Amino acid sequence: MLTEVAEKLAPGVEELVPGRLFVLRSLCPLDGRMSSYPANARGFTAVNCYLLVEPGAALMLDTGFTAHAKGIIAQLASVLRPDTRLSVYPLRLNEFMSVCNVEVIADNFDVEQCYSGNPDAALWVDFGGRSDQAGALARPMKTTLVARVQTLQVGDGDARPVDAFQAPIRLIGTRWLYDRATRTLFTSDSFTQEWSDEAEGPWNVARAADLRGPDHLRSFLLNTRYWWLEGGETESLRRKLRDVFDRHEITTIAPGYGRVLRGRDVVQRQFEMMDEVLAGLARGVAPSRYIDRDEIR
After folding, report:
1. Do 92 and 189 meet the contact criterion of CB atoms below 8 Å apart?
2. Which three-class secondary structure string do you get for 232-288?
3. What's the CA gap between 132 and 247, in Å, rounded?
4. What's the per-residue H, E or C state across 136-162?
5. How far is Cα 91 from Cα 95, in angstroms, rounded to an integer?
6. Which long-range contacts (CB under 8 A, 24 or more apart) does 4-8 make?
7. What is the pLDDT of residue 35?
8. Torsions phi, psi of 294, nearest 5?
9. ∠ CA 79-26-191 to the nearest 5 degrees?
10. Which one of 24, 131, 192, 295 has the largest count of C-beta atoms within 10 Å of its C-beta?
11. Omega into 90 within 30° of 0, i.e. cis?
12. Residue 134, Cβ neighbours under 10 Å: how many?
């Protein structure tokens, strides 16, 4: 089975762990229009969906933008067998990047369930929304409610536990997941500050020395949705991040955008930099002030 999968992967698919973990990448140019990146960022980023695979079943994390739907369907088809039961988990239920393609994926694959913190995922992901005729209704879809902290299973039995919990740093409702089998932490819109000058990548960081430094990370946070960190109460955020790092043996950080961070040394350095930046942004250390969207820091 694993050999068959590896021989027919569609463009944009990378097998991070043979037969068990895949990233589905869709590229976006950085030209000032993508709000997930600073207005002055230039180059390319990847919009990442992840696929955790077990015999007969798979779990997809996020579903990508509508503009990438055709490519994502081809990517999924190159990994999944026709009889694979697919579960979908949008890590941010109110973000386009997470929910846009739930419907088209369900049209093409056997979607068994959608994980959600809300009781009717079909409405939250606008399931059926592509039909704009008067009176159109969202199609029924099984919703599996998830708590703030919960262990899920990929496939039958308890062979592939995945721990889901609230993101330590977030602006909206966001989940992080930890896959014990591959020691991978899925961090949604955190740790997304690594992009590439060229569309060809590279799309992985395998050496700590290749990470952009804390100054870049600080600037990235303050010029995107985390502008509010400056002068804020960051000590509790630092404690929560340390707890995530201490509780899990993480060898890969898999963000929703940008490069995948691979290797224990890379992971440790990334957490150290985030802790350093948060300490420097703390109330009493950094001023708290109104920030204009066009101000680059």
Report:
1. yes
2. ECCHHHHHHHHHHHHHCCCCEEEECECCEEECHHHHHHHHHHHHHHHHHCEECCECC
3. 47
4. CCCCCCCEEECCCEEEEECCCCCCCEE
5. 9
6. 5/78, 5/79, 8/78
7. 87
8. -90, 0
9. 105
10. 24
11. no
12. 4
Q: Are the CB atoms for 237 and 278 separated by under 8 Å?
A: yes
Query: How high is the pLDDT of residue 286?
Result: 85
- Token code pair at residue 132: 């704009």
What span, in angstroms and rounded, lies between the C-alpha atoms of 270 and 127? 37
* 3-state SS string for 160-199: CEEEEEECCCCCCCCEEEEECCCCEEEEECCCCCCCECEC
Structure tokens at 274: 């985030």
Q: What percent of the chain has pLDDT over 90?
A: 71
- Token couple for 30: 């950085």
> Are 204 and 194 a contacting pair, CB within 8 Å?
no
Q: What is the pLDDT of residues 53-93, one digit of tens each?
A: 999 999 999 999 999 999 999 999 999 998 999 999 999 98
- The amino acid sitting at 297 is R
CA distance 175 to 255: 12
